[in-house]
Amino acid sequence: MAAPVPCAPGQPGLLQPITIREQRVTDDLDHLLAVLPESLQRQLASAERRQDLLEVVLDLGRPPEARYPGRRLDLEDAPLSREALDGILARVGRFGGDNRAGIARTLHRISALRNRAGEVIGLTCRVGRAVYGTVAIVRDLVESNQSILIMGYPGVGKTTVLREIARVLADEMDRRVVVIDTSNEIAGDGDIPHPAIGRARRMQVPDPQHQHRVMIEAVENHMPEVIVIDEIGSEQEAWAARTIAERGVQLVGTAHGRHLANLIKNPALRDLIGGLQAVTLGDEEARRRGSQKTVQERCGPPTFPLAVEMHSRDCWHVHWNVARTVDALLRDRPVQSQVRRLDERGVLHVQNPSPCPPGVGDPEGSSTAPPALPAARDTRLRIYPSGVTPHQLDALIDDRQLPVQVVRTVDRADAVLSLRNSLSRDPGARQAAKGLGVPIHVIKSANPNQLQRALERLLLRFHARGDVV
After folding, report:
1. pTM (2 decimals)?
2. Which terminal Cβ of the chain has fewer Cβ within 10 Å, N or C?
3. Three-class SS string for 219-257?
4. Distance CA 151, CA 423 (A)
5. HSE-up (13 A, CA, CB side) for residue 328
6. What's the alpha-carbon Rg for the chain, to the nearest Å?
7. Are 229 and 215 in contact (CB under 8 A)?
8. Strand partners, 203
9. pLDDT, tens digit, for every residue of 447-468?
10. Closest CA to 167 of 206, 191, 134, 127
11. Distance (Å, whole) CA 89 – CA 139
12. Residue 2 — pLDDT band, cuts 50, 70, 90?
């Protein structure tokens, strides 16, 4: 399947529709129904009642019910008895500290409701399905090697997509992938992971409160190239995610919230989008912005350069540049995302209502740019950094709206920006720069003020030469 075309410079709007291969669904539903009383198994035996079944709800003293998208169905008139509930519990695996149990080698999840004495008085038996083919909608993002954050309301399918991404990265792209499986929801219950994650390895989390420790342990002990993590929900987990990203490991994760704007309002998860700090503006700058003198601004580069909002199973909004989106939200500017819709025929329509972000089409461009399309060479100043992190430069370039692009090889650069003594640890880059006649600009430290002054001096020099407009 060809990757969907994200955008083309100067061509916003509806692009060429792309047909993706048919999705294949496996649900092992018989294994879940086997733990239910025989009377309920008969009620759910027909293909019509199995289709799109989300969960079976069993509460003591109430009639059992089946839930489907947008509707529910009472399975029996008689209320559930204690004897029937105890019989189900006897066929279910052990419940963990998160009150969840499972069925070995399946993706089904059984969650318990307890009374004040700790006795189980209700069960939610949620159907787990492996859907092969969902990753086609965002295949180009997965292949970009950038960390991806997936957001959406509960039940929209975030975990299903995460599971498929893990399989594609491990099997089709031959990456070393470790799945952090907090409640065995990604790879199923038991010691052997479900085949839906392919050759990806799975680390189980003994206590949900220790998820951040297992994330760090995965990097330190198992040398992954990719970490897959579901439901980043605490400040400690956000810190662990940033630590992992700074070590050069690609992250693919989900977070609580439906939109990026929700993370701005969530103090525990703000670090995922670069963190926030209060900044006092000068009078002139405050007037220029039309804002108060004290405003909130992003502290640094986001942990996840790319973000996907799942508005439904068939409609996803893609943010190619999370830093720019967050800055726009903080300044009350309109935010436009790339919209991807899958119609009933399996045709993917990509709509990009805004001009493409800087770097589109150049595989050696900034770290937040999609690498899919070739584009005509533009006239920005291309910088190769040595000792300066690309994320730090990208954040400064985006914030100041400078016509500068960070590249990954010296032969594509107009100039090298280096910390003092950094090139001595990168002799190949220094030799290449001298051989190609690429100027080297050295700075003492990588603080934002020095970086900005260095970029401005380089821009003036190249502007005088006529290389940069």
Report:
1. 0.68
2. C
3. HHHHCCCEEEEEEECCHHHHHHHHHHHHCCCEEEEEECC
4. 40
5. 14
6. 25
7. yes
8. 180
9. 888 888 888 888 887 766 544 4
10. 134
11. 41
12. very low
- 3-state secondary structure string across 265-309: CCCCCHHHHCCEEEEECCHHHHHHHCCCCEEEEECCCCCCCEEEE
Tokens of 446: 């990588």
Look at residue 121 and give its three-state secondary structure: strand
Predicted confidence band of residue 85 (pLDDT cuts 50, 70, 90): very high
d(CA 254, CA 308): 9
Phi and psi, residue 404, nearest 5°? -130, 145
Mean of the per-residue pLDDT values for the chain? Answer: 83
> Which DSSP symbol is given to 209?
G
355 φ/ψ angles, rounded to the nearest 5 degrees: -60, 150
Quick one: tokens of 280?
A: 């006092």
**Per-residue pLDDT reduced to its tens digit, 230-278:** 999 999 999 999 999 999 999 999 998 888 989 998 999 999 999 998 8
Best mean pLDDT range from 97-106, 251-260, 371-380:
251-260
Spatial separation of the C-alpha atoms in residues 66 and 72, rounded to whole Å: 6
The amino acid that residue 382 corresponds to is R
Instruction: Name the nearest CA neighbour of 307 among 127, 103, 152.
Output: 152
Could you tell me the CA-to-CA distances from 333 to 94, 119, 176, 258 in Å, in that order? 50, 52, 40, 19
Place of tokens 């300044």: 331
